[in-house]
Predict the 3D structure of the following.
Amino acid sequence: MKTLVGTLWISAWLLGSGVSALAADLKNAAITGSYVETRSAEVFAGPCMANSEVNLVGDQAILAWHIAEGSWQGVPLGGMGVAAAVKASGTIGAPDSNPYPAKAVLLVDERATPEQRQALESFARARAGRLLDEVVSVIAAPISYEEREHGAVLFTAGEIVRVETRNMQAGDHLCGNEGLCYLPLTKLSHSMPVYTLMERFTGKGLGVTWSISGKTSSFVGSF
């Protein structure tokens, strides 16, 4: 098995994820905002930890976008939020694991008009690629995205999704040989790994719910 840390694994997976196939849509979309992502596998870890998780965990993820300003397909979405909870068939991003097919529950801002809800769904599908090929349900929910200092984010979508992160600290390093194992699951202009205080999905449709904390398994960024 290839070592995760150092080789980063990432280029080949991104090429097949569907993100590159949508490059034209992304280029033409004048839209900016903030992003948080959590997974059930460490994204910043030593080789032993990272490799030990492949095909055992890492098949669950939450991706959440807060749109600060801009439009998608001509529909203004400033101030809106959208998130996806994903259950894949394998460890997402690992070269020795096939995450497809994947299922997803999509949560769109309850304040959005019907036209905006369609645009939010289209935006999320474009940004997440094949991970959102099979959306089992679309739920309108009260969405809150609160950015704090140094990588700290609190995101909620009603009672269905909760994500809370903080910046990395010295005590988060277990072996001193940690490095970046994966890249974010979407195209971003800036990103950094952060610590997961809480990742929770309590919804229906994925055949599983989860509550995870105490892992270096999140990213925050901007687009």
